[in-house]
Amino acid sequence: PSLMFAIFFVQLLGRRINNNSLLHIGLLLYIVGVLVDTYSILFPDILWRIYNEVFLTTRNGLFFGFVFVVIGKLIAEDKPKINHNLLITGLVMALLESIYLIAWKSKSLVNMDFSSLLLVFWIMCLLNNIDAIDIDGKLCRNMSTIIFCIHPWYIVLVKKVINNPFLGTAIVLGVSVFSSYMVTLLSRKYKW
Q1: Per-residue pLDDT tens for 146-186?
Q2: What is the spatial distance between Cα 64 and Cα 45, in angstroms, rounded to a whole number?
């Protein structure tokens, strides 16, 4: 539902305002969503109560989905080149942000953070330029679907066994990617 809402909202606004304005609106909404959801910075009580009555969470198409749909729209229209400095910056930022959130904010679960914007932009550019590199696009799509379905199970299982958030994240990531790759390969060999 959040993706459908985000696409609808981008289409609706995209007819009335330019892409630059769409991106600014998306970034503003994303920043509000991250501040409320990840950093637990609340807004004045009356605004917060009204917001909670309408949306319940920032994990919806308005705050988190909108900006990513706008980024996808911009990438599809402009075809930017892959910038590896963006990847390095995003990874360093993700590491620092994770350390801050885990060590100082005692967060065990983070839905979105600021570094996600850079990393998702880089991944979208990479996937948009998939013809320029030798990657099996169908394999990537199938794996991403499987990862989406199985990673919550791995998160629950690993959390029961491992208390270290860094190690737990690495294990969930590794096991999710490996098992999705194996399932994809097996499904090609054995038609189910």
Answers
A1: 887 888 888 888 888 888 777 887 888 889 889 998 998 88
A2: 22
CA-angle at 88, arms to 181 and 118, nearest 5°: 80
Enter the DSSP assignment of 42: P
pLDDT in tens, 87-127: 889 888 888 888 887 777 766 666 678 888 888 888 888 77
In the numeric block, which tokens belong to residue 18?
Answer: 């330019």
8 Å CB contact between 8 and 73:
no
Give dist(CA 145, CA 55) in Å, integer: 26
CB 110 within 8 A of CB 169: no
Cα separation, 125 vs 139, in Å, equals 17
